[in-house]
Amino acid sequence: xxxxxxxxxxxxxxxxxxxxxxxxxxxxxxxxxxxxxxxxxxxxxxxxxxxxxxxxxxxxxxxxxxxxxxxxxxxxxxxxxxxxxxxxxxxxxxxxxxxxxxxxxxxxxxxxxxxxxxxxxxxxxxxxxxxxxxxxxxxxxxxxxxxxxxxxxxxxxxxxxxxxxxxxxxxxxxxxxxxxxxxxxxxxxxxxxxxxxxxxxxxxxxxxxxxxxxxxxxxxxxxxxxxxxxxxxxxxxxxxxxxxxxxxxxxxxxxxxxxxxxxxxxxxxxxxxxxxxxxxxxxxxxxxxxxxxxxxxxxxxxxxxxxxxxxxxxxxxxxxxxxxxxxxxxxxxxxxxxxxxxxxxxxxxxxxxxxxxxxxxxxxxxxxxxxxxxxxxxxxxxxxxxxxxxxxxxxxxxxxxxxxxxxxxxxxxxxxxxxxxxxxxxxxxxxxxxxxxxxxxxxxxxxxxxxxxxxxxxxxxxxxxxxxxxxxxxxxxxxxxxxxxxxxxxxxxxxxxxxxxxxxxxxx
Length: 508
Hints:
transmembrane helix; single chain; 16 helices; 13 strands; dihydroorotate dehydrogenase (quinone) activity; oxidoreductase; alpha/beta; Dihydroorotate_DH_cat
């Protein structure tokens, strides 16, 4: 290299210093290298423990509805995270898609119920309002309910009242709602019911598709329908009659303008006459081989005179049963939560006193043949038994189910078994004794009138039979006159005609 090149290189080195990097290679001490398999095993054990715990918790959640996990952890967490309506919708979806817990315990024989001469697995049902559009029918049956009531369903879809419209009163374990019958309409819910049906069935089944369980459809009316119109209810009977065990005529919601006015005697007579006529005109269902039962649902805010009038109308209209009751517009003084000021129907323990009073009054004015279903404030086995002693054949829950979660039905059934053991009786024995004690004793005069009406009906039937014979005899006489000489054809047939006429006139 020349002197010039060396000088240039030194100059560049001074102006552009080249950084030097030290590359350090970490080394592990011998002891660390020796412990790595142990650390790996520890991590594996940790993952396995976490997986096992998670699987165990899921099993407890999914397979055991009695677990306290539901009542004291999951349901309170849902209430803390979501408002009342959102939590309600999430619960319906969980039941719809089969990701909720199931009741795996067989019902004790002591709590077997009976209604209309039909045995039911237990007396606990879920009231209308929870599954409004028939999304979670089978999920609810899986929780152990023997009566699942969907709806209310209105003929046309409608959104219901503006939100917010559901309010928790946690200190009171109560709810106020003013939903206003949000519904996807007859056509949509009808398609849901049809989707449940098996493709082929060779024998009659209950509409629930489960022995010992009943499926009910609660019928409502659209907000824009005339207040005194019965058309929405008649349409509901025609639509859902073939696919239900029970149809519930709901005239008791406080959130549809004018609806409770249909509980007045004159309106109720026309309504019940219309729906019973529509039901009786149905062909027996190809699924159940019979027509559905008709049940009336009442408010707990009726006074004694109104309930007596309703009892009279129910008997005249041949309604099969009554649900007592819906939510109340009353506000007990002991309510604590600030939401007590909200407009709407109150449900939960505060309504129990009103429901029980109305049920007892109605039981005292209806014959034993017309069963009552108790609803309102039932949250324990002792509550259910109290309604049985007031004459309720079955009971329904709603608000306690919302607060305590999927294990509520099983918990109440277990508590009811314990209560009945204390009494030394079965559910049916308690109900039968109460109904016999509280129901009115048929008066001899009424029995004679009833027998007289039956006798008249029999005489009318016989008169019609004789009339038909008379017409046949007349036809035979006419034919014989055409074939035989006049004198021969008139003799004996005319005598039989005169005799038939005389008998028919006496019977008529």
